[in-house]
Q: What sequence folds into this?
């Protein structure tokens, strides 16, 4: 049975036909007949033949003399060099196998430490903020206390005034009792001196400065226990002090 | 293990010897195929220096991969595959067309000055340059088929195996390669003798 060939199929086989490398006898015969009968196909055949002639005329220049003799040693050299490079990289890879976990751990440790220090710093900062807040609170408290103290001081001042009044009264009573001749102007002076004596005697406990009625009585008793000379001395001192 | 191998030994014996640790067996493969590989590469890249570099790279690649060679195809097909792939990659990377044009020009002028009376020699070189340019202009697949079929006289089945393609389109590629070369040659007809 004769095989039917398409025109494209015959055209595609033209180069092999011209080069005489078609071994299918039937195909070869069909192409030959097509060239004889079909002018277009004949034209294609001529053009391909022209091309092949030109291609066949072209020949590559020979490589340098002894090129193939020296090729094997050069290939072996390159293989050897690449093996060395590969060996280096292999060692390098071994190094990295060890280095990467170590570096990772170090980085992790540094990060952890940094994070921890930051936390510590943050805590310290928070604490200092808390401390500052506390300090501010304390300051406020202190201020409040100071205010209270001031209030207290004012109260104390009032108390002092009352005590002073009492004291001056006591003294005047004392003087009126023991020195009925003493006048009121002296008592006013005495009041001023008492204030002065109070200012100078900060270290002296209040009870030693401010006398209550009971103290006054004790003082009187003590005074009574003194002999006459001592009593006179005290009286003279008091007089000298302008009390 | 066969240690008494030589360049005439069968490929499978040389490979077996190499796999068994005889690194010298590789030298027999190089000696056996170096010319074939050089020329197939040279016909792809056209330039000797490039062909030299690629040929060496092909054998270095073979040395590295020979231990994994399973013998599913013939050794020469395997080496051809490497050579064709390296050549096509080189063409893609280096825009060989412009480089080769420079090389050819310098060679042509050299010939003319060496042989000032040799007009025929000069004309031959001009023709060669035009043809080289025509080949350079071929698309990758057509160029590969043209080189392997026309210069290496490989069967379409072998070419299909090397290029990892089906036989179907190879004849068409071959024909269209010729048509393109033909068109270029006709364009340059004024320069041809």
A:
């Amino acid at each position: 049975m004769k095989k039917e060939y398409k025109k494209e199929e015959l055209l595609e086989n033209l180069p092999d036909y011209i080069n005489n490398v078609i071994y299918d006898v039937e195909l070869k015969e069909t192409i030959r007949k097509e060239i004889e009968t079909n002018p277009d196909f004949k034209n294609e055949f001529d053009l391909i033949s022209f091309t092949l002639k030109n291609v066949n005329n072209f020949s590559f220049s020979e490589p340098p003399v002894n090129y193939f003799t020296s090729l094997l040693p050069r290939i072996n050299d390159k293989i050897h060099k690449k093996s060395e490079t590969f060996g280096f990289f292999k060692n390098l890879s071994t190094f990295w196998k060890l280095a990467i976990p170590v570096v990772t751990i170090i980085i992790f440790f540094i990060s952890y430490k940094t994070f921890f220090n930051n936390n510590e710093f943050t805590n310290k900062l928070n604490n200092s903020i808390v401390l500052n807040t506390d300090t501010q609170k304390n300051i406020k408290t202190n201020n409040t206390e100071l205010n209270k103290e001031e209030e207290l001081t004012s109260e104390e001042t009032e108390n002092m005034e009352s005590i002073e009044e009492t004291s001056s009264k006591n003294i005047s009573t004392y003087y009126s009792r023991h020195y009925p001749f003493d006048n009121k102007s002296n008592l006013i002076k005495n009041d001023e001196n008492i204030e002065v004596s109070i200012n100078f005697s900060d270290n002296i406990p209040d009870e030693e400065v401010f006398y209550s009625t009971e103290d006054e009585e004790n003082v009187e008793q003590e005074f009574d226990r003194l002999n006459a000379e001592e009593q006179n001395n005290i009286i003279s001192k008091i007089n000298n002090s302008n009390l | 293990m066969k240690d008494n191998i030589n360049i005439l030994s069968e490929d499978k014996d040389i490979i077996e010897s190499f796999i068994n640790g005889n690194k010298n067996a590789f030298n027999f493969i190089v000696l056996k195929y170096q010319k074939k590989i050089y020329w197939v590469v040279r016909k792809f890249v056209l330039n000797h220096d490039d062909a030299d570099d690629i040929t060496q790279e092909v054998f270095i690649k073979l040395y590295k991969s020979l231990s994994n060679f399973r013998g599913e195809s013939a050794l020469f097909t395997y080496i051809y595959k490497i050579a064709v792939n390296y050549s096509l990659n080189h063409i893609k990377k280096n825009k060989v067309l412009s480089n080769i044009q420079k090389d050819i020009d310098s060679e042509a002028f050299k010939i003319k000055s060496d042989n000032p009376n040799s007009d025929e020699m000069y004309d031959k070189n001009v023709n060669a340059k035009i043809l080289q340019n025509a080949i350079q202009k071929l698309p990758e697949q057509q160029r590969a088929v043209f080189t392997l079929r026309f210069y290496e006289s490989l069967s379409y089945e072998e070419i299909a195996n090397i290029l990892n393609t089906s036989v179907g389109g190879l004849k068409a590629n071959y024909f269209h390669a010729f048509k393109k070369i033909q068109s270029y040659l006709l364009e340059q007809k004024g320069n041809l003798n």
Q: What stands out?
A: Confidence is low (pLDDT under 50) at residues 180-202 of chain A. The CA atoms of residues 10 and 31 of chain A lie 6 Å apart.
